[in-house]
Amino acid sequence: MNIREQAELQEQQRLSPYATKSRESKGRAYPMEKCDIRTEFQKDRDRITHSKAFRRLMHKTQVFISPEGDHYRTRLTHTLEVAQISRTIARALNLNEDLTEAIALGHDLGHTPFGHTGEDALDNLVPGGFRHNIQSVRVVEKLENSGEGLNLTFEVRDGILNHRTECTPATLEGKVVQISDKIAYMNHDIDDAIRAKIITPEDIPSHITRSIGTTSVIRIDLLVRCMVEESQGKDTIALPPWVAQLLRELRSYLFENVYVNQLHQKERGKIQGMFKLLYEYYISNPEELPEDILARAKKKDKTRAVADYIAGMTDRFAMKRFEEFFMPAGWSH
């Protein structure tokens, strides 16, 4: 019995009866030789962290566009926070930590530069619309690894696809990531909004801070505890109804006071204009696309290939391309 097989046996003996066991995975789109050391979900986690799309998250906006400071979250730091919260909950509930971590690390791979502003811009431009969760699956199935994809297991792909609120993941591990994503982004968006002087701690509705805490550290700890207590020994993952209601109210507060902040809205307009110009430029000048993207555009849907390319850009690369195509070059002597 090799190390992987020992780990699979330990999962069967140790994990909750509601956990997803790696030996029982529904498998991959096409067969792949199993590793002697790593389980299938551990292998997926590694394939995600070694991908180019994962590395690019470092230079993609989370909420605030081109922040001046080193302590604002990026899409990568958000991803790592979601993974940390998810693993804590999965461990407490005896769920599959490796599956949970793989889903968390891959859930935002398809996010555009400039956060949800970029996503909204592409959604308005691309026939059929654009959703980052669907694009994340597209990244791992069709775009990474020179177009071959990462060939991840069904369970990881399902968790990535269904991490949005309106979706229903097929595994409890996927549900853990779905809720942990909200716990992470709401609390770190508050931190960043306070750092940006958009709001103050006192601005947050007092009935929310009295109930779930005045700081992000306190709130995250309480939310994790509540989630574990509410889900312990059950075949479902949930927060207590009173906590879920407060989170909905906190999310509404953030939308009204942070995400649609007047300064932020002004920058949103600029980003949307930039996306429109880049999208139209590449549609009209496909020869400017990289060779692999151009080949895909010729064989299949050009509009989707252009969307793939723009969605994969980092913030700074998108601005560099915009300046190259639409800003006058400087003169030299």
Describe it.
This protein is mostly helical and 333 residues long. The protein has a single domain, classed as Hypothetical protein af1432, CATH 1.10.3210.10. It is 62% helix and 0% strand. The chain has 16 helices and no strands. The radius of gyration is 21 Å and the shape is flat. The mean pLDDT is 93.
Q: What labels would you give this structure?
A:
single chain; mainly alpha; Hypothetical protein af1432; 62% helix; flat
Q: CATH class, anyone?
A: Mainly Alpha
* Sheet of most strands: none
Instruction: Give the tally of structural domains.
Output: 1
Question: Percent helix among the residues?
Answer: 55-70%
**Uncertain parts:** none
Strand-pairing-aware structural class: mainly alpha
Query: Which second-level CATH architecture applies?
Result: Orthogonal Bundle
Overall form? flat
Strand element count: 0
CATH topology category name: Hypothetical protein af1432
In angstroms, what separates the terminal alpha carbons?
71 Å
Our count of helices gives: 16
Topology summary:
Layout lengths: L2 H12 L25 H10 L2 H5 L18 H18 L4 H10 L8 H11 L6 H12 L10 H8 L10 H24 L10 H7 L3 H16 L9 H19 L2 H23 L6 H9 L2 H11 L2 H12 L7
Helix pairs in contact: 2-5, 4-5, 4-9, 4-11, 5-8, 5-9, 6-13, 7-8, 8-9, 9-11, 9-12, 13-15, 13-16, 14-15
Characterize this entry briefly.
The chain is 62% helix and 0% strand.
